[in-house]
Design a protein that fits this description.
By secondary structure, the protein is an alpha/beta fold. Helices cover about 45% and strands about 15% of the residues.
Length: about 350
C-alpha cells in the first residue's frame, strides 16, 4: 500500500513538473519569436535608413491597437493621414495584442474602419508586458499602479524599436519622459480623456459617492482626506510627465480645459476632433422618410448618490416641430429592444423633462 501511494505521488509530481516544463518551453518559444520579430523590424528599419537618408520613424504607442473602438479609429486615421502627407515617414505601432498576427490586425482595420494600412510603411512591435497596465490586477490605487506599470511596458517598447518621433495615443502619459530623455525622441500625444481630472478631485472633496469614490470612502472623513492627498499628489505627477510632450492633441474642448489646467503650456495644446466616417450614411436615400427621431444613449441604473435603487432616465428635449415623433425609452429598454413595441411614442409641444 505504501509503495502504491509513493508511486502515485511520484506520478502526480512528475506530471506536474512535465506540465510546468512544457508551459515554460511554450512561453519561451513565444517570447523568442516576438524578440526575433522585433529584431527583424530593427533590421528592416536599418535597411530603409540606408536607402532613405531622410527616413523618419514615427512610433505610435497603442497597446490595444486591435480593440476596434473609437480610439483605434483615431490611431489608424492618424497613421494614414501622416503617411499621405509625408512620404518619408515609416510608422511603428507598439501593441500588446500578442494573440493576433499583423495580417489579422490589418484585416480588422479594413473591416472595422474601412482604412487600408500600407504594409510597406507600417510595422508592428509586439510587447509582452501588457498585463502590467491591466486594471483588473490593481483593485486599489489603480491610477498610480497602472501608471507605474506603463513604465515597464514603455521600457520594453523603447528597447524594441527607438523611434525618431514618439506619439502616445492611449493616455499613458508616464512613458513620455522616458522616450524624450532616454530615447532622444521628439514626443507628442493624443489625449482622449485625462487620467485624473479636477472633476474627479471635486467629487472626492465634496464626499460625493461616484464611480471613482466608493461609498465607504465618501462616508469617512479620514479616508476622504487621505484620498484627496492621493489625488493631488497624482495630479502633480501627471502634470509633470505631461510637460514632456512637445505637442499635445486633445479630442474635445472639455479635455482641452483639463489638460491645460494640469499640464500647462496652452500654446502647445490643440483640439483635434476624432474622425467620424459618414460615407455610408451619406449614401442612404432621403426620400420616403418619416419625421422620427430614435434616441439611444447610455443609462445608469443606480441612484446618483449611491443608494443603489433604480431610477428613470430624465431627458430634456430641445424644442421640436409639432408633428415629429420621438421614440425614447426609460431605463435600458432602447438598448435591449429589438422591436418598436417596447418603445414609447410622444409628440412634445415644448421642452419637457420626464
Amino acid at each position: 500500500m505504501a509503495v502504491t501511494c509513493v508511486l502515485w505521488w511520484l506520478a502526480v509530481c512528475g506530471g506536474a513538473v512535465c506540465g510546468v516544463g512544457l508551459a515554460a518551453v511554450c512561453l519561451l518559444a513565444v517570447v523568442a519569436r516576438r524578440r526575433a520579430h522585433a529584431h527583424a523590424v530593427s533590421l528592416q528599419l536599418a535597411k530603409l535608413r540606408a536607402t532613405q537618408p531622410d527616413l523618419t520613424v514615427v512610433g505610435f504607442f497603442h497597446p490595444y491597437c486591435n480593440a476596434g473602438g473609437g480610439g483605434e479609429r483615431v490611431l489608424w486615421a492618424a497613421i494614414n493621414a501622416l503617411q499621405e502627407r509625408h512620404p518619408h515617414v515609416h510608422c511603428i505601432v507598439y501593441t500588446g495584442d500578442i494573440d493576433a498576427t499583423e495580417e489579422a490586425i490589418v484585416a480588422q482595420v479594413k473591416q472595422r474602419f474601412g482604412q487600408v494600412v500600407d504594409r510597406k510603411r507600417t510595422s508592428f512591435a509586439f510587447l509582452q508586458t501588457r498585463e502590467w497596465v491591466e486594471a483588473k490586477y490593481y483593485p486599489s490605487f489603480t491610477m498610480l499602479r497602472q501608471s507605474l506599470g506603463s513604465l515597464v511596458l514603455g521600457w520594453e517598447a523603447l528597447c524594441s524599436v527607438q523611434p525618431d518621433v514618439f506619439l502616445d495615443t492611449m493616455g499613458y502619459a508616464f512613458v513620455l519622459p522616458m522616450f524624450r530623455f532616454l530615447g532622444g525622441s521628439k514626443v507628442g500625444c493624443y489625449v482622449h480623456y485625462p487620467t485624473v481630472s479636477t472633476d474627479m478631485l471635486r467629487r472626492v472633496q465634496t464626499r460625493e459617492a461616484s464611480f471613482n469614490n466608493a461609498g465607504d470612502v465618501s462616508a469617512s472623513t479620514w479616508k476622504t482626506s487621505l484620498k484627496v492627498f492621493y489625488y493631488r499628489a497624482f495630479a502633480l505627477c501627471y502634470g509633470l510627465v505631461g510637460r514632456a510632450a512637445t505637442v499635445v492633441l486633445v479630442n474635445s474642448s472639455w479635455t482641452s480645459g483639463h489638460i491645460k489646467e494640469l499640464w500647462g503650456g496652452v500654446a502647445r495644446i490643440h483640439t483635434v476632433f476624432p474622425p467620424c466616417d459618414t460615407t455610408s450614411l451619406a449614401e442612404l436615400p432621403l426620400a420616403d422618410r418619416n419625421n422620427e427621431i430614435v434616441s439611444v444613449a447610455q443609462a445608469n441604473t443606480k441612484e446618483k448618490k449611491g443608494e443603489g435603487g433604480p431610477t428613470d432616465i430624465r431627458v430634456a428635449w430641445l424644442p421640436l416641430h409639432v408633428g415629429h415623433t420621438i421614440y425614447y425609452s426609460r431605463r435600458h429598454e432602447v438598448a435591449q429592444a429589438h422591436t418598436p413595441s417596447t418603445l414609447c411614442t410622444r409628440r412634445p409641444r415644448r421642452p419637457e423633462l420626464f
